[in-house]
Each structure stands twice: as C-alpha cells, then as structure tokens.
Amino acid sequence: MSEKAKKPEQAKQNVQAGNAVEGGPKNCKADGCKSKIEKFGFCKDHYELFMEGIIRADGQKPLDYEEKLSRFKRNRSKVA
C-alpha cells in the first residue's frame, strides 16, 4: 500500500479512538460521588460547587468546606 492510502485509514482510526475514553476516570472525582462526568471531571452538582470555589480541583474538600457550603446555600436561597 502506498503512503497516501494509509493516511485516511489512520485518520479514521484516530478519530474513533478519540471519541472513546480509554483508561480515564468515568465517575465524578469529588469524594465518594458515583455520578458520570459532565465537565472538568465533575458531575453537574459538583461542577457548580467547584466553580464557586467550594471544592478543590482535585475533588477534595478544603479545611473550611462547611463554612463555604453554608455561605453558598444561604446566598442561593436569597436569590431563589
């Protein structure tokens, strides 16, 4: 086979492999969460908490987690 004939086959295989997540995490990286990943390795609920600064990027809770979470809930109830 010539070099040109191999390139479309390789491109097709690369696209198919790129669509499938192989070996990567399939669940949310927040502590104890079993939900599927939506954005940045978090489920929908934990992504919102991550964007508000309540949980860290690695999914762990910071030392002042309870304080941040209560402030978030309080502010959220005022808006609704």
Rounded Rg: 20 Å
User: What is the average of the pLDDT values?
Assistant: 79
How many helical elements? 3
Overall spatial form: elongated
Structural class: mainly alpha
Q: Between the first and last Cα atoms, what is the distance in angstroms? A: 65 Å
- The level of helicity is 40-55%
Number of strands: 0
Largest sheet: none
Spans of at least 5 consecutive residues with low confidence: 14-21
Task: Give helix and strand order, one letter per element, not per position.
Answer: HHH
Strand content: under 5%
Detailed description of the structure:
With 80 residues, this protein is mostly helical. It contains 3 helices and no strands. The protein has helices at 3-19, 44-51, 65-79.
Question: How do the helices and strands line up, and which of them pair or pack?
Answer:
Layout: H1 3-19, H2 44-51, H3 65-79
Characteristic terms for this protein:
mainly alpha; 3 helices; 80 residues
Task: Give a short summary of the structure.
The chain is mostly helical and 80 residues long. Helix content is 50%, strand content 0%. The longest helix has 17 residues, at 3-19.
